[in-house]
Design brief:
two-stranded antiparallel ribbon
């Protein structure tokens, strides 16, 4: 693992930040290549939408992190200002960006679902790269395992892996999630999005499919995570309950769209 990419005197460039930024940039560049295909989109609307979703994701990710980590926040073990660059929950970021998207599309007069389909491709692309930053940093680590593809983290003062796990073979849960996101990206890009563009699938199919597939992948991967998962209920962690809610919500949306199509 390489938690620090460059360290010269007081200057430190974290690998985590570089890879997360690379993930954002990759997603934005892919989206920019699709502007002409997006419904009612132009350059100015595009950047307004991107910035709105970015800040919505930051706010949502941080708010959900605070909620699931409230005991540590109140006890002073987590400092919200000093540690602001750490501690974001992806599902919170997704919800925050969706809420920001509702505001943005109304302001910009563009269709929500037709636009969301393109972000349903860009999100797993960027996430697949950004998750590797977690591997470099040592966060979001897995449980101990004897599997041949286990990874050993730690060994650096900049590592976020607890010292008692340094050198212990762990599930590479960061890689699991990165590969899952990469597979989802390819499926959305090559299989579903072209069908939506040709009118063979309804707008919103790509985005709903992305949320469903990611939620299923995240639900499974959570069983292999070894870091603090927040609160637990019924034998499942908070992210697993959120994943279940996302799958049920997407299923309800797909069923409602199917009923409307049959009665139209």
């Amino acid at each position: 693992m390489y938690p620090v990419l460059i360290h010269i005197g007081p200057f430190t460039l974290a690998t985590y930040g570089v890879l997360v930024a690379a993930g954002y940039l990759s997603g934005i560049l892919w989206l920019k290549s699709q502007i002409a295909r997006m419904p009612a989109m132009d350059e100015d609307k595009f950047w307004t939408l991107v910035y709105s979703l970015f800040f919505g994701a930051i706010a949502g990710g941080k708010i959900l992190f605070i909620l699931v980590s409230l005991p540590d926040v109140l006890a002073g073990r987590i400092h919200l200002i000093r540690d602001f660059r750490y501690g974001f929950v992806f599902f919170g970021g997704l919800l925050g960006s969706m809420i920001a998207g509702v505001w943005a599309v109304r302001k910009l007069n563009i269709p929500y679902l037709g636009t969301a389909d393109y972000f349903g491709v860009a999100l797993p692309l960027g996430h697949s790269i950004g998750r590797l930053g977690c591997l470099a940093s040592g966060c979001c680590y897995g449980k101990p395992t004897s599997l041949p593809w286990a990874v050993k983290l730690g060994g650096s003062p900049f590592s976020t892996t607890p010292e008692d796990l340094w050198g212990v073979p762990l599930h590479p849960t960061q890689v699991y999630e990165s590969l899952a996101n990469l597979a989802i990206f390819l499926a959305m890009w090559k299989l579903l999005l072209p069908r939506v563009q040709r009118g063979r699938l309804a707008p919103g199919t790509v985005f709903l499919s992305y949320v469903t597939l990611y939620s299923c992948a995240r639900f499974v991967i959570e069983f292999f995570r070894g870091d603090d998962r927040g609160w637990q209920a019924g034998g499942l962690w908070v992210s697993q309950w959120v994943a279940i809610a996302c799958v049920l919500g997407c299923a309800a949306a797909i069923a409602a769209r199917a009923r409307r199509a049959r009665t139209a």
